[in-house]
Please model this.
Amino acid sequence: MTENSPEIQGILDEYQQKKLSRRQFLKKAGAAGIGATVAAGLLASCGEDEEPAATTAAPATTAAPATTAAPTTTEAMPAGPTKGGTLREGYNRDVSKHDPITTNWYDPAFFAIYEAIVTIDPDGDFVPQYCTDFGISDDGLEYWFEVEDRQSHSGGTITAADVAEFYRIQKFSFIAGLAAPIGSYRSEGNRVIAEMNNPWVGTYGPLATGYWRIANINTWKDVGQYDDETGLAGEGVVASTYGTEVVDATGPFQHTEWVPGSHSLVTRWDDYPGSNVPYFENKGPAHLDAIRWSVITEAGQRATQLENGDIDTLINPAHQDLARLESNPDLTVYRHPEWSGYFMFMNQENFPELFGDLDTRKGLSHAVDREGMVQALLFGNGAATYGPFPTPDRYYEPAVEELNNYDVDEANRLLDGAGWEMGSDGVRTRNGTRLEFEFMVENESLQVAIGNAAAAQFSVVGAQANVNVVDRAVWFERAGSDQVPAGLFMWLWPISADIIPLFCNSAVIPSPNWSHAREERIDQAIADWQAAGTQEAAQKAQSDLQLAWAELLPNISFINQNATFVKNNRVHGWAPFVWLLYPYYNDTWIES
Model:
């Protein structure tokens, strides 16, 4: 679809007649396949390009280019939303446990089942979701959130005190260190108050993610037989069926089925009271009857299933299929930078003979042809990463690009200098140890391809990485243990500055600092970030962290892909955008 199509002209007419706000125009234009940059240009041509915010909002901590969408059909939109139907969505990973406190990943179902206290709008601002209003004390030491008593899926009531208790328990989770500057939570009447250890520019970021999405903590405790004495290590919590069989939250859909390796299913909660998110058009119960996410780990099958009508929407098709999908008039393709990256961890503590010295790690890093991977495996739909952050991040430090460049001669020089002698079979040895190791990779086709490509490049310089493809659950069980020397990991998180410290902070050994890295420079940069009360301090801390990662190589960064979403044009109100990992489903509906 082009900006001159009848549908876009109709939306423009509505805007000029003041029937639509700027935000509503951008949303409708995005759903119709017009990127935000083009849409903003259309607004400017009308003499308007700004509109005051209608509700409390705070700027997000990450900046990126706008979402772009491929051309679609020029047929006119139906009159309005229709109720009913099951949205069938293809998902590129296995399903994760739907428990924000104990899961090791959060998947799209979290955006249907749960609500975060705040979320991010298409302009990149934090806005209310579970709360009705929010703000900060003058000294920056208290963040407050106004909440109403809310009914949950079970029929129970969640009060402000329950929300504060959920956050208290959440602080025991492995992920809680991302929000370490938040010291504690309390409630006062209908307010939830986050008490800070120090003013911090990053406070809202973690609260908007999947791990901080609010569950009915009373149900969670009952199902897992939780008590403070044993905490999250208690037998009941470890064996809990919360998140697999039982989920109790406040989102527009209820957890219904969870089948690892196959699918997850949610169904509409008819008693949903409506959303506080200002940019949602549908303020009541969902239009859809249900959403089913099908696990499609083989990338080559994803586009085919969409084209054959087996699914309606798709997350991350194979990169080689994008051109074909973009040329299909029945589909809309959304592409934008993804807050993600692929890196190799190297267990330095348990395998010091392999990875304990920096020159060996540098030699392996210089052997990696990142640009070649982007072209061969992503078909140009991504970028090389020489440090831990994707290039569009607002804190990105370009100086990392001077390090870890592809240079086989330098790789060989470093490995020679580290004492590794080339053997007659093409594998180096040092003090009787072969430069050979297991390279554990999750069973997903792109990850397997990246693992095999890296292994082939390592072999050129005399390192033998034996790729071992395992299921996702097995990967997380084994990573960081004394059994696994190295592995490939793909991270996905909306704020790089928060997630990257988890993979290199000495405080989180053995998991998810699977490399068991202990680097004073890195730990100090992380501490500086979590003490940053200004954007200037935050930028310095993040630059220091990226340079320390790129120079000391606790992990070896490879590449970063763009996020790609595809829908059949019978689906409306499903509008992925750059600030969120997944779309919301409140506005989604399907033509009969």
Summary: The CA atoms of residues 576 and 583 lie 5 Å apart. The first strand starts at residue 58 and ends at 59.
